[in-house]
Amino acid sequence: MVLRKPLSRRTVLKGIVGGTAVSIALPALDIFLNEHGTAHADGSAFPRRFVLWFWGNGVQPDRWVPSATGPDWIPSEQLMPLSDVKDRVTVVSGLRVHAGNDRAHESGPAGFLTGAPLLIAGGRETIQLPSIDQVLAAEIGGETRFRSLELGVGPHTSGRSYNGADSRVPVESSPRAAFDRIFGMGFTAPGEDPMPDPEVAIRRSILDAIGNDSQALMSRVGARDRIRLEQHFDSIRELELRLARLEDDPPALEACAAPEPPAEDYPDVEGRPPLLERNAAMTEVLAMAMACDQTRVASYWFSDPQANYLFPGAEAGHHQLTHDEPGEQPQVNSIVQHIMENYAVTIDRLSSITEGDGTLLDNSLVLATTDVSHGQRHSLDDFPILLSGTACGRIQQGVHYRSNTDENTSNLALTILQAMGAQQESFGLEEGESSETLTSVEIT
């Protein structure tokens, strides 16, 4: 057996740019006495996108869960607005948030979206881990101008997107402000000449400079480390391509076109925010931002937990009605249907944008969920979950999967992360942690 001299974990690849020494750090390798990681190939012609679509105050499970499973599921009463997009929606039912339920309306989003329990001490709530959208933003968001977008439909939405422990990412709830940020200064449409950035050329030169050093290193390491280094160098090559895009025209995405500017404002009508109009405008901004490859990760906050908006035909705010409306709560039922009508607008718009032989939705995965199961009881079992899109052929579409074993919502979160190409082997913390995937929704 040939013994190789161990390398320091501080080993870097070095080169010379303009007479100045430059270096690039290496990933963790077996030769550094760390564990081996596996490379994953990606043959997709179009980038994968992820959208977290969220609404507050839950549903009424007896009116939400379809009676049939599999591809022949029939929309339930509250899912009836999705009838026209049924073949593009997968319903996931029977899962439970395993990360505790100590704070109504907040434990659910924390447990599902981060996989970790919400810590409560001295009356203060603490989020422990990044939310799933920000995990993906860190993994795949660097390929685009905006690592992620946080968009709100209801006025003054705050969202529950976290990029670290207790670090909430702010939400833009003005369609016009979101439009100006994405398609204003800095946006380059196909055929236009962007302003050159001198830092881009420097960074590309650094990547070129380490070429000889990388080949020498490959000859020193074992087979498993060669796999890991190839993966690392692949990521460097991807960075080179991304930097080249910044120097040249944007990607040749035929559907890319800046949308018409939204209205400056969407004032309330008799105390009710025009959510359908606001949603249509923000959906257009979201769809074109992704079609133009300005971002590949977005969180879309239709309404916050405990949101108390006045909906059409309702006598009181949404959150208030979930607790105060007597009997079978017909107004709450109508509000959930109204929210699903808005979700259908988003799904229909994404699926209307052609990309190659498919659509933008085909190359995306939209996770729609809420903060509680039953709005009045604040339950976290049988958690409401919808999926749309296939993540470039990785997730089933148009089926109803029902779990009869209270599977952890973190199983689905991990499935989504892996389908999107994230290098995750587990998701969550403590009782919310899972290293299992929900294979029933995967395309094998």
What's the short story on this structure?
The chain is α/β, with parallel strands linked by helices and 444 residues long.
Explain what you see.
The protein has 444 residues and is an alpha/beta fold. It folds into two domains: 18-41 and 195-247, no CATH class; 49-192 and 254-441, Alkaline Phosphatase, subunit A (3-Layer(aba) Sandwich). Helices cover 30% and strands 14% of the residues. The protein is built from eleven helices and 15 strands. The chain has helices at residues 61-64, 107-114, 132-140, 175-183, 198-209, 211-218, 223-247, 275-291, 318-324, 330-351, 409-419, and strands at 12-17, 20-25, 49-54, 89-93, 119-121, 124-126, 149-152, 162-164, 167-168, 297-301, 354-355, 358-359, 364-369, 385-388, 400-402. The strands form five sheets. Strands 7-10-3-13-14-4-15 form a seven-stranded mixed sheet, with helices on both faces. The protein has a two-stranded antiparallel ribbon with strand order 1-2. A two-stranded antiparallel ribbon has the order 5-6. The model is unreliable at 1-5, 32-44, 196-200 and 245-251 (pLDDT under 50).
Task: Name its key features.
444 residues, alpha/beta, Alkaline Phosphatase, subunit A, 2 domains, 7-stranded mixed beta sheet, two-stranded antiparallel ribbon, 11 helices, globular
